[in-house]
Design goal:
It is a single chain. With about 325 residues, the protein is an alpha/beta fold. It contains eleven helices and twelve strands. The protein has a six-stranded parallel β-sheet. A four-stranded antiparallel β-sheet has the order 1-2-4-3, with helices on one face. The protein has a two-stranded antiparallel ribbon with strand order 5-6. Helix 9 links the parallel strand 10 (about 225-230) and strand 11 (about 255-260). Helix 6 crosses helix 7 (about 175-195). The longest helix is centred in the C-terminal third of the chain and has 20 residues, at about 300-320.
């Protein structure tokens, strides 16, 4: 790469690589130009960039990340470009290079907080992930579980969630146990199907290697050599959370996810997720990841929706 204070030229060995990075009708390039405030001029296998030095450095990091993704045999979607831009906006740290691999997919972080989340899952026994919808906390937990299972780090996956309401009135729902809880665990199922072959997921469910365990049915168990996920944990009571966390057995890992702004406990009861994060924040084998609206990686509109609700909540609290 050749550069001066305001111009940077990035070269690519293959014109086709540059074409894929730029996207159809240069859609990816247009997004990068808009977000980073640079101007770009592709010519052959060269890409000339103009902007301030900081923006050019970030642009270089974006193109290198996208190049590496292509060289790894992966397709580039608009979401990958969004993620590369987010990652380039923060300084490198020891979470760089964090990724999840399964037979079907390789998942790389799309925000700095996602990178920290993946690193925490790799390094810690128990991880709390709290934050708004769209930040990837549930999806990445499920992919991490699938990766751990395929690599032989655990023997099974256990998925749990408070069903219906905090009272978990499963008996009022039709069908067998799986049919009762399927609607509430659908985000976890979707993530498993996204990163594992469908037949493998179905075999795992039938054999018990992938277990659906409603929170109400976890009492009295010890979960050994398992990757355990508790989703929507903001709707656990403190007693339920204590019960769940004490199921942790030998060779197991736990990820607990939830959105403290979406507590549905009756009577305004204290959330077990909030209490547990307050009580356990000093434990060395426990990580706490706190996502914000800046970490939303779904459609950009989702971030603006979260912001609108946050403003409404703040206004309501100020009026009280």
């Amino acid at each position: 790469m050749k550069s001066d204070p305001d111009v940077l030229t990035v070269s690519f060995d293959d014109n086709r690589v540059l074409s894929q990075i730029l996207g159809e009708h240069d859609r990816h390039l247009a997004l990068i130009e808009e977000r980073l405030g640079i101007a770009a001029s592709p010519r052959g296998n060269l890409l000339s960039l103009r902007g301030n030095p900081e923006a050019l450095a970030q642009a270089s990091a974006v193109f290198e990340r996208l190049r590496a993704r292509l060289e790894g045999g992966h397709h580039i979607a608009m979401a990958d470009v969004e993620g590369a831009i987010r990652m380039a906006a923060r300084p490198p740290d020891d979470a760089d290079g964090a990724e999840l691999r399964t037979r079907k997919r390789v998942i790389t972080p799309r925000s700095p907080m996602q990178a920290a989340y993946l690193k925490a899952i790799q390094d810690k026994i128990l991880v709390f992930a709290a934050g708004p919808a769209g930040t990837g906390k549930t999806y990445l937990a499920a992919v991490a579980a699938a990766s751990a299972l395929e690599r032989g780090f655990v023997d099974r996956i256990v998925l749990s969630r408070p069903a219906v309401e905090a009272g978990e009135r499963l008996g009022f729902l039709p069908g067998d146990m799986r049919e009762k809880v399927d609607p509430y665990l659908r985000p976890l199922y979707d993530a498993l199907y996204d990163c594992m072959p469908a037949a493998q997921v179905e075999r795992g469910i039938e054999s018990g290697q992938i277990e659906i365990a409603p929170l109400a049915f976890m009492r009295g168990r010890t979960l050994n050599h398992a990757f355990v996920i508790l989703d929507e944990a903001q709707n656990c009571t403190p007693m339920q959370m204590k019960m769940f966390l004490t199921r942790l057995g030998e060779g197991s890992h736990m990820v607990v996810t939830g959105d403290p702004s979406q507590i549905d406990l009756p009577g305004g009861g204290e959330s077990g997720l909030v209490q547990a994060m307050n009580l356990l924040h000093t434990e060395s084998q426990i990580a706490q990841i706190r996502f914000s609206k800046a970490d939303v990686v779904r459609h950009p509109l989702v971030s603006r929706i979260v912001e609108a609700y946050d403003r409404a909540d703040a206004a309501r609290k100020n009026a009280e």
